[in-house]
Amino acid sequence: CYSVMASPAFEADEVVGCVVIVVDVTEKEQRDRLRREFTSNVSHELKTPLTTIYGVSDMMAEGIVKPNDVKSFGKNIREESGRMIQLIDDIIQLSRLDEDAPLDDELPVDLFDTAHDVIDRLRDHAKERGISLYLDGESSVITGSPALCDEIIYNLCENAIKYNKENGSVTITVHDLREGTELIVEDTGIGIPYEYRNRVFERFFRVDKSHSQVVDGTGLGLSIVKHAVARMGGTIEVDSVEGAGTKMIIRFPRK
Ligand code: ADP
């Protein structure tokens, strides 16, 4: 996509040439399109829970809710406002990651310890779903933000539990390699169709919207993970077989 500006060049009132400036605005166009899409997605995602909250509270205010139903109406409001809080938290996190400023808490972080900590926190949640969690590999230290490292591993592990099957498992492996640190979060879940393996990192993209409505989430988790990994100089890639499981592979080169 190009923007063209042309202006004639004169010499003693005679046109002797023409100055043409051609600017490649593809990137800007793309950025503008993504921004527009983002705003429209955010509005839609916020409006859905708000509409429910409005409807439910309206009925309560009009006094047409039976006393027996008050509790379930209250739960409905709590759930929908919880979704909104999660969504707003994710948006704030994404906009922080979009800034170019250097991370303000760069420290040595052992990803094996971080993964151990995340597994401890998610073990009960996984158990409720009949999922076993495992940790494999060895210590490996990178320079980065401890909070972001935690968020990356937590998000990936949470997804690996969420999109798993009954009695499935999640294994986090940390390898300390000569070229850097490799972190793999592998699950035995529903997998990601090949054609969507890159799209899952897009903001608000969810593979199966109907299934996703049952499964909690904002569609922003992997986008946050990808940004956070990039901010610390790493890369993320997906290896998945539909119906069999997913591997998220993160690599941080040695600095
Ligand atoms: P969310 O989980 O909130 O929907 P994410 O950005 O974390 O959003 O993930 C985007 C989509 O990628 C999910 O909706 C899901 O369809 C797919 N996905 C992510 N992780 C996995 C996984 N481990 N197995 C299968 N599908 C996954």
Overall description:
With 255 residues, the chain is of the alpha+beta class. 46% of the residues lie in helices and 27% in strands. The protein contains six helices and nine strands; from the N terminus they run ββααβαββαββααββ. The strands form three sheets. The chain has a five-stranded mixed beta sheet, with helices on one face. α1 (26-61) runs antiparallel to α2 (70-98), α2 runs parallel beside α6 (221-231) and α3 (111-128) runs parallel beside α4. The radius of gyration is 24 Å and the shape is globular. The relative contact order is 0.11. Bound molecules: adenosine-5'-diphosphate. Adenosine-5'-diphosphate binds at residues 159-160, 163, 187, 189-192, 200, 205-207, 212, 217-223, 246. It is found in: Membrane. This is histidine kinase.
**Span of the ends, CA to CA:** 37 Å
Q: What's the gyration radius in Å?
A: 24 Å
Question: Which band does the percent of strand residues land in?
Answer: 25-35%
What is the number of strand segments? 9
**Largest beta sheet: what is the strand line-up?**
4-6-7-9-8
Mean model confidence by pLDDT: 92
Question: Which series of helices and strands comes N to C?
Answer: EEHHEHEEHEEHHEE
Spans where pLDDT lies below 50 across 5 or more residues: none
Structural class: alpha+beta
Organism: Lentihominibacter faecis
Protein name: histidine kinase
Subcellular location: Membrane
Q: Which features would summarize this protein structure in a list?
A:
6 helices; two-stranded antiparallel ribbon; 27% strand; alpha+beta; single chain; 9 strands; 255 residues; binds adenosine-5'-diphosphate; five-stranded mixed beta sheet; histidine kinase
